[in-house]
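Onboarding guide, step 5: your first structure request.
Type a short instruction followed by the sequence, for example:

Predict the 3D structure of this protein.
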Amino acid sequence: MWLDRQGKTLGTVGPPGTDVGIWLSPDGTRAVVRDTRGESSVAMSSGDLWTGASTGDLWTIDLARGLRTRLTFHQGAGGFQSVWSPDGSRIAFAAGNRLDTLYEKASSGAGDEKELLKEPGTIHTPTSWSSDGRFLLYYTANVPKTGYDVWLLPLQGDRKPLLLLGSVFNEWAARFSPDMRWIAYASTETGEAEVYVRPFTAAGPSGAPSLGEGKWQVSRGGGNWPRWRADGKEIIFTSGEFSSSGRMSMMAVEVKTNGAAFESEVPQRLFDGPINNGWDVTPDGQRFLMAASQIRQTGQIPITVVLDWRAGLKK
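The system replies with structure tokens like these:
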């Protein structure tokens, strides 16, 4: 379902189905989703943090025509999250035993998947592809002592993964800013999920990519799954709280950068949307695409009442 910044429903894409994990292409014309026709599993932990897997396949959707095109054909275990390359030509995703492998495939569906990284026994979830195409951000889950950690995978050279955030707190959902000078992510260092921003440089003092000094908390009272607007002047995220009606709050905060300085305004609540199985926002930050059940869209459960039902029994 499409929603505007006030939470008004603008329409739906295609017939009802079982899709999860919506990710829009950089130009906003397509989306990639995972079907869940097979059994699915979701591991929950504090701070509205989850990692999910489902037996199914990835599909791309032409949003103007509602046309679905199957991307993978394995009906195997796969993650709920996929990310597009900056030019929209490729899609990265996690699959394999316990999501231990990162792959990429042409978004046209042509050719086979290409293995990017395999670490048996470790859950991987990709979250962002840098605008220059050189780096992929992902997080690992349920690591002993450190929980959820943010990693960077170079897509050129020796392709050796680099740990960016690996404290005793959970860190996940990292996203590059459009100019690649900042990374927004979620962390539980205050005891609940909040959104933070750190500076990023593709070539640090040692020559390797690194995070710079400084850290700014941009959410207040809970925050998760940040997205940058295409111009880099706003971060959109979900709140860590739920309203009494069981609906999730969508938030936005204006940000300003000047050299190494970063500033953020007071976060604003856009609307309370339906609790959903995935969402994304268009590059201009004006429309939201969510995978929400029909019951959650209306907030009501349909009830059918049959009168004089005994008359329908066979004599």
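Each response can be followed by summary notes, for example: DSSP finds one helix and 28 strands in the chain.
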